[in-house]
Amino acid sequence: MSTLHLNEFSDSANQAIAATRQIVADLHAELPRNDLVAWTAGNVSQRVDLGEDAPEPVPAVFVIKPSGVSYDELTASNMVVCTLDGTKIDDDTSTGLSPSSDTAAHAYVYRHMPAVGGVVHTHSAYATSWAARGEVIPCVLTMMADEFGGDVPVGPFALIGDDSIGRGIVETLQGSRSPAVLMDRHGPFTIGAGAQEAVKAAVLCEEVARTVHLARAYGEPQRIAQHQIDALYARYQNVYGQKDHA
Ligand SMILES: O=C(CO)[C@@H](O)[C@H](O)COP(=O)(O)O
Prior knowledge:
Its cofactor is Zn(2+). Pfam families: Aldolase_II (PF00596). Its EC number is 5.1.3.4. The protein has 246 residues and is an alpha+beta fold. The protein has helices at residues 11-28, 30-33, 103-112, 125-133, 142-148, 164-173, 195-218, 226-238, and strands spanning 43-49, 60-64, 80-83, 118-121, 154-155, 180-183, 187-192. Helix 4 packs across helix 7, helix 5 packs antiparallel against helix 7 and helix 5 (142-148) crosses helix 8. It starts with 10 loop residues before the first helix and ends in an 8-residue tail after the last helix. 5-O-phosphono-D-xylulose binds next to loops.
């Protein structure tokens, strides 16, 4: 198939893509702000559903950062637009501006988890130290029950560059309440309804990785009973926060 260009999409699709490029560029600033990344090693993406405006066979695209570019230099105009097979479209960025090296993993998640609208990857220090040991973070804090609905699971060891990481994320998170997976000896990947929710999960994943690590330095924290985890999860997911307020 020849390279798609943005001008093949409808006006409303272009507006949705432009808005998403701004959202994804802005959310990348949260990674260094929350101390989740070193240098350029972390990325955020968000799906754009094109609905009835889709030029067949492209029902959705996603927006992700270019690889290896400083967070300070990320703007809406250098966010890369890809089809769900991970191919960059002609998106008015330079042809030399390659998407993140984790693009194939994000694309695999979008293809296999239709409810997921945002994906984040970081190498945040404490979560990555659990990943380095291949150790599940046990649900010993109410915040974990709230956000993750249980333990933060570990996914398989997988090499970067093809579908392997994406397959590991999907295998681990499909059917799980957790929006975070610690990929074995790599680091955390998080998902959400949109990129903002996935960034939130990345921030909270690092927070619970840090606090459980600190707790274990002085003792053996106890896992919360399953019925209490279920009650906390139900309350946080359904009652916490403001109604009709992002
Ligand atoms: O884990 C790795 C590399 O080992 C990746 O997560 C990269 O560190 C992400 O960098 P970008 O290509 O997104 O800039």
